[in-house]
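Dock zinc ion; give full complex structure.
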Amino acid sequence: MADEHPERPTRELIRLGLRGQCPRCAYGRIFAAYLTLADACPNCGLKLTGSDVGDGPVVPAMLLIGGLIVGMAAVMELTWQLPLWLHAMLWLPLAIFLVALILPPIKGLTVALQHRYRSTEEDTRPGGQ
Ligand SMILES: [Zn+2]
């Protein structure tokens, strides 16, 4: 009998995680809401309650977005010497928007990697065992 949920290559696992799809069956959505994980995959039943990613997705988002914003603000300041209120008007909404955009894919990736490396508290295993 063929394995119903074979262990996926890392590249595919990363793609599934970034899209918020189940790392086991590749069909179910792992998010019940914006950043809220579903209790289980609606397609294959993979338990997601043990996936506790904590602050894992926040750190790369802060580093990526923070570096980008600080770099762009520095270039604009050195080029045009913008007033501080204009910097605040530009960078604060952009930072909030970019963080909101990037957090779900990074959280999905973290959940997928937890599934692969068995760091969840549940009994999920790569290959669906
Ligand atoms: Zn699934």
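Observed: The chain has one domain: 10-117.
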